[in-house]
Structure formats: C-alpha cells, structure tokens
C-alpha cells in the first residue's frame, strides 16, 4: 500500500470560529493565507514571517500557532480560532473589553495575536502571575505600546489571587 | 473657549475611535485590501553594496506563468524616475548602478505573489562590483569612492532649498551654526570635557512593513492606497514623476501598522504607481520585514562634543561636530542633521556655540526619519558628557542641569520661538520620582537625561469640519492614524468645541481628494498643528451656529454658548438641527467650517520658528551583572512637558512605547553590516524589546501647564520620551560602575568587555583618589 | 511563501523509507516544520516532496522503562512539557521544554525535528547530552541507536543517512539522589549558552557523580569531562566551595566559536560563570535547598 501523495489542490475540512469550513488548498498553502484570502479573515497579519513576532497567531485546537509557518493542510479536522471568533456575537470577550479599557491598542497590528495568545493563556491558567504572563507573551511583539498596558489588560482578566493557604507552584527541577 | 470652563471631552481618556475594529480583527491595512483584477508585485534587489549594472535579461521572466510585466529602469523613460524630499537622488529602479545591498533593480508583476516570486529568479543580471564605503569614516576618507558621482536636483521642501553638498565628496549636506565667540570661548572655560560618541544603525520594525496599492483610472488619475505618514508629500512626488497635476493624484491612507518616521516621504508609491501604469491593472506591493530593513533605517552618527563650564557650573561653550550616515540616498537626511544639530546643546543656555554636521552618503540602506529625528544621536553624546562634566566639577548632575536650564520665555536661538515650558518642573518631578536624593541600593545606579527638539517649520495644516443636519459631525483632516490615536484626538477636539458627544464625531480616512492639506504626520505635530486646524474649523462652525441663533433670538453672539449639541442662552436652548433647519429652510444641508494653520517662514536659523518645543526628561535605575555584562533597567521614569494631554491614556501609551523603543536602541538593537552586506535583517538576529524587557517600574508622567500653542494649550508629544533613554541608562551605568560607555547598543558582551578593561586598568594602576579617571569605556 | 511541493503522508516507516529512496535529495522529512518551512521560505532548500512523518503511528509516544525515558520523534515540545510521565521521571526535561523558543513553536515543533535540524543554539541537545541521550534511527537496512554525541556532527550536520528516519530519543534518567539544574543565558531569540549540571553527592557505599554539559557556544554541545573529573568525588558542600574553580576549568575546556552571540573570549568567560552558577544551584539542591538564584537574562530550571 503506497502513501497517497497530496494532489496539487485538495479540500481540507476543519472548523473555523465554530463553523465547519472546507478550505481549498495546495500543499504549500500556509494557513495564514488560507484564512485571509479564502475566508476573508484578515485579523491575523503577516509581519516577521519567521514565528518570532506573533502577529499571525491563530489558535489550533486551543493552542497558539504561527499561521505564517503552518501548512493549511495540517488544519484538517481541527478547530481553528481567529480573532474574529473571540467575541460572542456582539458581546466582546473579556480580554477585548480589557484591551479597550486599558488602552492596550495603538496601531492594532499585533492586537489579534496578543488577544488570542492571552486567551489561550487564561484557558490554561486562569490566574497567571505577571511572570507567567511575560513568559507566555515572549513570542508576541509590539512596537507601539511598550507592553505595559497589554500586560495590565491581561492581568485584569486574571481571576483573583488564590488564598494564602494554597501551596506555591514549584518550578521544575 | 474660556480656559476656566471644565473640559468635557478633552483631557479625558476617551476610547479610541478605531479600537473596536482593531480588537475584533476588522481593522483594515493596505495589505488587507484587494481590488478587482489586482496584480502582485515583487522586487529584485541588488546583492552588492555598490555595483555597475552591466546587463539585464528579463526574457525568461517575462515568459513565466502568470507574469504580466517585468520592469527595469529601461522601461521607465516615460516618467521622471527620481524622487526624494531633499535631493531627488533616488531612482524608482536602479539606473546603471546599484548603490546599496538591497536596492531594487527590477520588478515583476504577476497574478499571484507566488508567480511573481518565482519569476524573480528567472531575471538575469550581470553586475560589476565597485568599491563600497559602508561607514562614515570610510566615506569621508580622502579619495573615497563616491556613492553619487553627480549632484542630483533639490527636492520639494522650502527649508532645504539651501542644500549644501560638498562636491567631489560623499557629503550631501552640511549644517553649520555658530553663536557668540564660537570655539574661542573655550579659553574662558574653567573645565573642558570632550569625547566622541557613536549611535548605531537601528530599524523601525513597524510590525506592518511598507505596502502600497495603485490603480490608474481611464481618465488618467492615479490613486494609491499607501501605508504612508504624509500623503501630501507623496502626492507631490508622484505628480512630478508622472507629470500630472496634483489634482490628478489621489493618495488614500487606511490604518498604518506602525510608522515611527519610517513611512514618511515616498517609499513604495513611485514603483507601485509605475507598475500599475505599465501593467494596466491595479498593482499591490507588500514588503517583507527583510525588505523593510533595506528600505529605510535611522541614520547612525558619530559625534565629537566638547563642553566648557565655569567652575560655578555655568555652561559657557559648546562645540559639536557630527557625521550622520544617511545611507545610499539622502531621503530626509539633510533635515535630520539640521534638526538634530540645532538642539545639540539640549534644553540649556549656552552663549558660545559651534555646531557642525555632515550628512554623509554610504553604500547602505538609506537613512530616513525615525522618532527623534537626529536628536537621539546627539543627546546620547551631550547628556553623557554633561554627567562627565558634573563629576569633574564635583556637582550633582541634576543640579548642574537645573542651573543651566533655559527658562520659559527665554530665547533659544535668534528669532526662533522662545522657550514655551517650565522645564525645571519636569526635571524636578523626574528626579523626585526616581528618588534621586536617596542613595540607591549598592547594586543599583541611577542616571538622568534631558532632551529638547524643535518641530518642523514652516508647516501647514488644514482641516474641515462638517456639521450635519442631525448634529453629528465629520472631521476632514489628513493626519494619519499609525497608533498614536491622532484621529481620536481630532474627534475629541471637535467634540469639545461643538459640545457634541465624541461618539457622534466621525473622522474621515485621510484622502487627498477629500481631506485637506496636512504637511506630515510626524515631528510630534499632529495634536498641535492639525489639532489647531480642527479646532479652528470647529470654531468656525460654532460661530456660524451662534450667528444663526443670535439672529433668531435677537441677541449678540457674545451672550450665547454651546452645550449638548445646542446653542444656549439665558433660558433658551436651540438644538443644532433646529438651527440648520432655520438656516436652510429644509431638513438638509450642513455647516462647513475651515481651519488653516500656517505659521509661515521666519528668519530663525532653520527657516521657520518652531510651533512648540518638545522637551522630556528621563531617569533610569539599572543594575549590571558584571560577569555576563547583562544590564537590567529596573525602574524608568519619563516626564514630558506636553502642555495638555488631550487624551491622557493615549499620551501615556505613546510614551511607554517610546521608552521601550529607546530601550531597544540602548540595549538590544543594531543593524550589522559586513562588507556592505546586511547580516541581520530578520527578527531572530535583530532583537527588539519584548514584554519581559519592560522595567518592573515604568512610569510616564506629564507636565501640563497649558502653555502650548496647540488646542487647549497642548504641545507636541511622542518623540521626546524616547530620546533620554540611552543617556539616562549610560549615566546610570557610569555612576554604578565608573565606566563611561560611548557606543550603543550596550550588549552584554560590550558591557562585559568594558568592565573588564576597567578592572584590568585599575589593578595595574597605582593612582588612587579623586584625581584618577578610569579611561575604560566603550 | 512556499514553492509548490507534494506532501506525502505515509502510513508506515516502510513507506517513509520508500519515499526517501524514490525521491532522494528531492525529498525532506517533515514533522512540525518550524525549522524546515523557514528554510524553504528563504529558498535555502527547495524540495519537491515533503514526507510527513506525523502520519506514521507510534512516533509520538512517550514511554518509560527501567530508567530509560523514550520520547517519540514527533512529540511536540508542548507534549514533553505537559507529560505527567516526563514530569515524574525527568522533571528537568519537562522544565526545559517549557522554555524552548516561544509558545507557538512549542505547540508545533517536535523534539525529533529540533534534534535533526542540529541548530547549534539548542537547549534540547545540550540537556539530552547530559542524559546520555541516544537517537533511534530506522531504515530499510535496519534500526540503529546512535549516541547524541555521535549524532550531532556540527552545526546543522547530523549522522542521519539519507534513507534514515529518526524515530525516537532515549534518555537515561539520572539515578535517585541526583540533583540537577539547567541554566540558559541569552538576550537574543536563540539561547547564547545552555548548561546542564547533574550531581549526585557521595554517600556511604556510593561514589559521587558529576555531569556537566555546555551547549550553544560551540559547534556541538559538549560534555566537560575534565571538569567532571576535577569535581568527581566531592560532597555537595565541596562542590559549592569549588564552584568558581570548576567554572574556570569549564572556561578552559569549552570549545567556542565566534558568532553574533559573542566572541570566543566572551563565550569562554560566560561558560565559566554559567557553569559556576549552575553548579551552585545543583549542589544546593543536592543539600535539599533551593537558592532561588536569579540572574539577568537567565533562565534556571
């Protein structure tokens, strides 16, 4: 039984922002371009193109991925979330509200990546420390804001601190 | 408007008009736009820093699948292929010679980006390498190869009509300014300090690289959607190049994903305009980050500064000789050297001054405007040297600065605007915030620095305000939104003047066919100049409303005010829609107001009097891990004298961003060239600040004395807070380690090496006590 | 953007091998793509075929047996970070995985891909060397196990033959009572220096052991045998006392190459400092303390 090579164009079934979608892609199509060009979801941006800046971040099965360096065919059977899927209809996600409230947006180019990364962080860790936020955001650059208000906005969405009696988290050894 | 009345909207941290679209992914930038039939362009760039172009063969590329055009300079004889605001020295595509590694030499236009990229590889070019100069020293050496062998014509700015190139050299402009007895005054000084400082090549890294989309109408009108900070400047360039009247060129600017000066003056628009014309279809060009690094950068500089003080601390004489490397094309380099050198002596009083700067061509990425515009390069030198002088004098560095600060109302330079701020207040607030008079912890050092900068003059900003029949408002102004919140500020100003809710004010997208002339979104001028134009235009509309109401009520307009979208008088309230109905006799029509702010030329040294002085102070508390050389900034305080924050949260955000960009060039960023090749035009090898680099304590404060020439007493902001970062950190390190750094960035290895030199020198030295001055440095 | 290619999705290792043989230099193995796709964007490699090894079952398992932790080649960094088994058996490995690159690379990038790419600035190679890592390579000619030291030949150069597939990495856990630390230093995107120290202090009837590996500063990660020899037999307290001296020995022993991260001179000095610091942390842990050291631009796991 030989492996079936992918033909020059194929249909990739996945879910994007909760909706089933069939992407028509070639093997070399990057997820970023499929989302932007085929689905018109322009929120994810191309900036550094080498996985450093985070402007292209989308969530794949809840985990942040550099869509600029991720083949669209890999999205098959997966759930993709873009910034356009963060809000629930007209109701903004708490992070979106917090970004607005804290003035955490200037030119807006990094914003979608920041929001999705922060959303993934809060799913994983609803009460992250500032240090954890900084570690998680290592791969999300911003050239305008100086980060302060972005960090404040994310911290504002963290659940209240645990009780003083809970054990501190010990780092790996 | 009475300054005593409380402000409703101005001075409040109103949410950005465009923030909602940004958090929901609906904000649109040039690369999000498509037009029917749009083609994609890619550029082929010179692999050599300096080379003759012997032969170009595009036959195979032209025949490739999906390709609609392949263009070289030979295909551009139907237009004037040169552009540039100071010198029109930059060709759309290289003509006979490539002057820097990365210069565009050919272009492909194709149905898809992939087809265009593939076709680039089919273009065959034969080059003959020429000797290149890649540092100012090399470029200035006698007999150095010339980057430009003929003198290009002057560009389009009045203040640069007196360009002074030095023929037969790589110097394309010189700036010289003397005051008092010049260099002779140093003989009267009690102490003299002198040193040489270097500022590196750094890049803006706007997260959105340059992009433009052009389309020609059948009637011969060219429309370009451009990621540009000055649509009107671009329009002038294109009109000249394509030999069209200004009215036939339309530049539209959606949102910019960052600018910082890197998107001022024509960059991509000429090539995209030309390609769209040749292809006969709309063409979009979007650069990669690597290409952005080969389009524009900050001018690196080498400055020799000499300061003479009297023993009592009076600054007596200053001399600065600076060489700015403007790269292969002048761009706005000549104005940068003028603007930077003009305030080379900072916000201090100094009677005897000799200032000289050269703009030097090298075979590297063209240098252009970048936040600070020549001032960071020289403030790095001056503010470091002031601290050295303070130490030699035995004076506290803050006291020494305070003693010599220019006072409000004092003259900075003959016939220029007098100082418009109480700078001492900013200095004192900064010193207090960083706890200057308390000793820091043993492993910490504190340093402080100041800056001052003039804004561009002469300058023009115009605005139109339209009051609609339902009392909503549209503001037409060509200030570009690149993250600074300018469009929101314009809405706040109009809303304040007209007493309407700010969410009933729309600000039109900058479009030269619709929004009137604004010189540029740069030079920290938008709130002050364009804001004033908007204020005037809104005031014009308010006056019209008052006149209509006055006639209706039979009272003088001086008895009337505005409130809640109504004209009010004792006991009377006339909503605007009613007044318009009255005016027009129907439920339609609108009132149109106009504002023009144009201070004009003056006989001040730069050809115009600055509309305001931008002044900021910064202080840093740092530590250094001597064993690795890693420097940490634990605390940073910035105080900027802004007259009035129209939107405090936006001001704070801007200054926080400015400080972090400053930390970038202070500790992390440097474009690395080796034999004319740019080695690190990517985000792995070029390190910009991340969230974890933010100081644990970062505070940005503002002095608001309402003493600016802008609306409600505002002055410019946005550049000032970047400038003091490097000298504040350098001064903090000097106070902590005794080592003076003269070159940036302060990478771990550079710091480690300098500290080691100090230890080696000290261990060998037999001198001790106050007379010893560590020669170590970097 | 990427030039067109065929994406092959084999169902077995045999099919992978057949594809490699059929297409030779025109085929590359593809897992996470976090390194490969960047090379392809730059035009440095232009394969006509990408052979997806993620579709081969059982390359993504993590198992532990008799002191050996086996990580399948297509396990993502994120998988290593979160694996309860790794956290239990080799917590340092989970801890270091947490600090590789950024969260997006950890989601997609694989352990096998990382090692096969052999970027000299690699945390994993440095760490795995100290765990006597071996790589399982499979081809139609048979399977073989190669030590990490032999596998990584130099920058971006490995001992993998053209027809071989990396299937797993095997790590030998340190014996009970070993205290360890991983320290990495760097300002840039990739680490400038990484050091693993593992020490098991002497106890009655049991000699002490010390392992020191340093990576990122030279062409390959390096086990500092001379430093280990000098520190052998010492108690934890003695290691702390001699940390400076052992660090200096490390600076002398390390092979460093100059690059944008620094000159040879600087890297040697850095090695000395970081080895000393890592030793101090590991030795303190061996005494049941954690000194919670913090240094600028330094991560200590």
The share of residues in extended strands of chain C comes to: 15-25%
Strand order of the largest sheet of chain A: 2-1-5-3-4
Number of distinct helices of chain C: 13
Average pLDDT confidence of chain A is: 91
N/C terminus separation of chain A: 46 Å
- Helix-strand pattern of chain A, N to C? EEHEEEHHHH
Number of helices of chain A: 5
Q: Return the structural class of chain A.
A: alpha+beta
What is the total number of structural domains of chain A?
A: 2
- Sheet having the most strands of chain A: 5 strands, mixed
Mean residue pLDDT of chain C? 95
Gyration radius over CA of chain A: 18 Å
Separation of the first and last Cα atoms of chain C: 37 Å
CATH topology tier name of the largest domain in chain C: Enolase-like, domain 1
Strand order of the largest sheet of chain C: 4-5-10-6-7
Q: How many strand segments of chain C?
A: 15
Bin the helical content of chain C: 25-40%
The Cα radius of gyration of chain C reads 20 Å
Can you describe what's shown?
- The complex is a heterotrimer of chains A (173), B (778) and C (301).
- Chain A is an alpha+beta fold and 173 residues long.
- Chain A is built from five helices and five strands.
- Chain A folds into two domains: 75 residues, Ubiquitin-like (UB roll); 64 residues, DNA polymerase, domain 1.
- In chain A, 28% of the residues lie in helices and 14% in strands.
- A seven-stranded mixed sheet of chain B has the order 3-7-1-14-11-12-13, with helices on both faces.
- The N and C termini of chain B lie far apart (54 Å).
- Chain C has 301 residues and is α+β, with helices and mostly antiparallel strands.
- Chain C folds into three domains: 50 residues, Uridine Diphospho-n-acetylenolpyruvylglucosamine Reductase, domain 2; 111 residues, Uridine Diphospho-n-acetylenolpyruvylglucosamine Reductase, domain 3 (2-Layer Sandwich), CATH 3.30.465.10; 122 residues, CO dehydrogenase flavoprotein, C-terminal domain (Enolase-like, domain 1).
- In chain C, 36% of the residues lie in helices and 24% in strands.
- Chain C has 13 helices and 15 strands.
